[in-house]
Each structure stands twice: as C-alpha cells, then as structure tokens.
Amino acid sequence: MGTKEDVRSRLNIAEVIGEYVQLTPAGKGRLKGLCPFHKEKSPSFQVDTEQGYFYCFGCKAGGDVFSFVQRTENLSFGDALRKLAEKAGVQVEAKYGEKSSRDLYDVNAFALSYFREHLPGPALDYLKRRGLSDETIAAFELGYAPEGWDGLLKLARTRGVSERQLLEAGLLIENPENGRVYDRFRGRVMFPIRDHLGRLVGFGGRVLDDSKPKYLNTPETEAFKKGELLYGLDKARTRLKAESELVVVEGYMDVITMHQHGFTGAVASLGTALTAEHATLLERLGVSKIRLMFDSDEAGRKATLTGLDQVIGTRFEVSAHRIAGGKDAADVLMEFGGDSIKAALKDGVTEVHVRYQNAAAKFNSNTPEGKRAILMELLPRMMINESLDFTNAPATNLRRIVAHELDISEERLRDWIDSKAKRKALSDTHLLAMSNSRQEEDRELALLKQLLVDPKLLAKLDGSMPWRNEAVRKVMLAAQGARTQEDILDVFRGQPEEQLLIRLMFEGRDSGTISKAHSQQYEQKVNAYAAAAVDDIQVTLSIDSMRSEVDFLKKQVVSATPTEQLGLLKQIQELQRAIEAEKRGRRGHA
C-alpha cells in the first residue's frame, strides 16, 4: 500500500490546481491565478511548484495539494488522499480510526442496487402515471423500498455489509428499548440523493398512498448534511458552464419532471430554506441568479423572499415565481407542457423589489423624513462588497430601484453610499442634492433666468421640452412672442409667478456699480453669456432626459424576452450615442 508521500511524489501540484484555477507564470518556480476560495479581480493566489505549496495573499489560504483538494471539494483528509491516490495510480489504506465517508458511499451504492431491483410493479406504475419516461427514471436511478421490516438487512448479511455500516448510513433504525434493528425505508419510491460531485450521500423516500410522513429522508450522517445539499445539483451543475442560473423547486418529482422537459437548471432543497452553506457552494460553482418556484400566492412569494437568508440575498439575484393555478411544477408540466413554466419564469417578484416595498411600507416616501428612513434601512443592502465580484448585482439593482422610486440621481446615491462620512448623518441637504427633480428644476430656472435677460433667445427652444417646474412651464407658454422682460412681466402682474420673475431678473443682471461708460459693454457681455447659457442648459436638460430614458429601458431589459432584449439594447445604444454627440457638441461650442 502507498503512503501520503508516495501520492505526493507522483503528482504535480500545478497540474492538480490547474484543473480548478487558470494559472500563469509568476517568476521562477511560481504560478499565479484568481483565488478559488474568495472572489477577486486581480490574482493574489500563487503556487510554488518547487516547494509544493499554494498561498493566497488575499484570503491567506495556504497548504499542500491535499489541503487544496480538501478545501475545494469539501472533503475529509482521508477522502482527499484517496481521490488523489486514484489520480496518481497509488493504492492507499485508511488508518485505523480515521473518519471517512467512503464506506457510506459504498453502503449507499449497495442499498441503491437493492432499491433499483424492486422498482418494477406498483412503484414503476406510479412513476409512469406521473409522466416520467424510462430514460428519466434510469437517469435519476429511481427505485423502490419494498414493504417488510428487514428486506435490506437480510440481503446485507449475505453480502458482508454489517448492521453498523447500515446504521451509520441511516439505512437502519434501532429500537432503543429492545435494541432491535429494522429497515428505515419501507413501501416507498426511492430517490437517490447525490452531492454536487455526484457522490451518493443518501436517499429520499415517498409513500405511494396518503400515509404519513409523505416523505422521509436519510438522517444526518458524515456524508448527508441536508443544509449543504441540493437535489439535482450534480446534474444541474453541467448547465452552469453555459448559464449561471438555477431554478429552485419544491420536491424531487418537480426536479425530475423539470429536467425531463428541458429545464435542466432545476434543483430542490431537502426540506430546508437556502442556507449560507448553500450560498458558499453555489458561488463557487459560478451561480449568479436563483429563481424560486414554489406553490404559493403573491403574499407567499413575498414572505419567502423576506425570510430569505441574508447571505443568499446579498450574493445572488433572487426572484420568486408562481405557476398559474397554484399547482406544483411536475403536475403543470404533465398537464400543460413547458410553456407554463416559461411563462412563470418570465413573471416573478425580485428579492430587491420586495426589500424596497417592505421599507417603503413602513415610511412615507413623500417626506424627507420618510426618504431618509428608507435610505438608512436599505443602506446595508445597497453597499457593494468588492470581494463578491459579479454577485454585486443585488446591491446594484437595489440602488437602481431606490433611485427610481425616490426620484433621486443614481450617481449621487452611489456617491453617498460610498462616502462613509456622509452616511453617518443623512441630512436634508444630502437628500436635496440627490433629488432628480430638484436638479432638473434648478436647470429649468437657470434657463428661464437667461431668457429673461434676452427674451429673443426663446427662438432657440424647439418647444419639445417637458418642464418639471410648473411656474417655468407657465412662463414659457406665456412668453411666446415676447420681445422684452416687461412683456413677460405684464402677463403675470399680481400673480405668484411675478416675484419669481423679478428675482430671476435681478440675478440675471447684477451690474452693481458699473459706470455708464461701460454699461453698453456690460450689456453685450451679459447678452452673449445668456445666449451661451441657454445653449448649454438646454443641452444638459436634453442629456438628462435621454439618460432617464436609458435607465427606463435598462429596467425593461431584465424582464424582456431574448428577442425584445435585442431591440431594447439597440435603443439604449442609440440613446448613448446621442448623449455622446450632445456632449461633443457642447465641448465644441465651449
């Protein structure tokens, strides 16, 4: 039998790690790449081929080839040793007392063959009635645990499998009163449960009638930890190479039927909510979007998202979807086919929308105090964790929603979030500075001020500007054809707008103590400035309008079909080109 050193001597650490990390030269005997244990944009992970060790300068992870495989595959040392020994062509024997999951996998494989042999009969008829094909039944290795107390136990005794092994694998139950052992699974359709690496870690069993419990799983063992497992992930992970999205459904049959109909990204949790352990695994596998498809109404979907583990919510784009009629995925697919699932996947409630709605329901978003409270409550979820790379999408999407709903500038919102000093006390001044409406209204007032300097500049406006400020809108309408300030003022004598116009007239022509000799020259300069200012402000308002339209189209892209997305993206590109053209034109006239 070989030893740990025999295995190490036959393996090149760079080749082993290179199967997980893309490595490039980093000096003599060293290679570098992006660390597989934390998200990063520039490589801080290095491998020393001469010493046989790896180290990450970012997260401080380090070790030899065995510890690398242990961390990457979530294995015990014994399992990592055997995995690498198999790769190196060396046979090793576990030390006495060493904990290993290998025996559990082998015992589960023995049980699976027993369950598969007993499938023909009522269990197979049940699966056929549920619409499963022979190919699907074989692919998911479905079986049946027959009635009787000791069928598996009797077979195990003839095959050299001990009671202790069956008990450790959760396949037997021991009566604490008399010490009698008997089969855990009886009279149930059996669903083998494999981890993301395809290792057989346990089973789920479903009754054929209405007896309780309807479902029964393997208990927690060294190999079976339901808070870390997702049924179907071993098959769904192959799809993750092309798409980074998973659909989480409720049960085993839902997963299997979804896969049979082409929805190969379907998985199911084992009776638990998605956990932080799930998040760590899925992030490592490259998942960025999670769609929850449960049998629940609108309130249920929102409750599901509200109660979602914070780690899941911050690392993935999550949405909840409901199939029409409230049925589960397996029944709907058998009755209506895949179109119903496609429709459900298009119509969902996003986790970030629910987060905003929950905050907005507590506070009045029409008041500064309410806006401040909403922003402060959502601040932790809007802050971007630079180490998460692509999974910054939830924070980015929430910022976009908040900016739209509260009518504030997304850019100025980002500046506030990124400024630790400003976050300590969100003042009315900060809120006012973030407001879209105030910014645009200020520009409109600035434009009106310049038009009062020289009303003839009204001819520069094309009449298509949508005014936010009601006073500006009234003045612009009344000023058509006016030649002097007095013509405009006469329209508003005694009206509330009169005081505004007088103030703007004084601000536009503040000559101070200029002498008569220089007054004509001053007037020429003021008029020239007014003409230039009108051009500049009008361009800025035009750019603001186009940017708002770009933001609106980007929101539509998220829920659009692929064909619709192409059209929307084309519109966005055209608007962005127009914005750049406006900017160049403004610089050219500067």
From TrEMBL:
The protein's required cofactors: Zn(2+)
Principal EC category = transferase
Q: Which PROSITE patterns match?
A: TOPRIM
The zinc fingers classed as CHC2-type run over 35-59
Q: Which InterPro entries match?
A: DNA_primase_core_N_sf, DNA_primase_DnaG, DNA_primase_Znf_CHC2, DnaG_bac, DNAG_N, DnaG_primase, TOPRIM_DnaG_bac, TOPRIM_dom
Secretion signal: which residues? none
Q: Which UniProt keywords apply?
A: DNA replication, DNA-binding, DNA-directed RNA polymerase, Magnesium, Metal-binding, Nucleotidyltransferase, Primosome, Transcription, Transferase, Zinc, Zinc-finger
The note on cofactor binding and number reads:
Binds 1 zinc ion per monomer.
Q: What is its EC number?
A: 2.7.7.101
- Where are the annotated coiled coils located? none
Listed SMART domains: TOPRIM (SM00493), ZnF_CHCC (SM00400)
Q: Which reaction does it catalyse?
A: ssDNA + n NTP = ssDNA/pppN(pN)n-1 hybrid + (n-1) diphosphate
- What the protein does? RNA polymerase that catalyzes the synthesis of short RNA molecules used as primers for DNA polymerase during DNA replication.
Assembly notes = Monomer. Interacts with DnaB.
Recorded domain comment? Contains an N-terminal zinc-binding domain, a central core domain that contains the primase activity, and a C-terminal DnaB-binding domain.
Q: Which family does it belong to?
A: Belongs to the DnaG primase family.
Q: What is this protein called?
A: DNA primase
Native organism is Deinococcus antarcticus
Q: Please spell out the taxonomic lineage of the organism that makes this protein.
A: Bacteria, Thermotogati, Deinococcota, Deinococci, Deinococcales
Q: What's the gene? A: dnaG
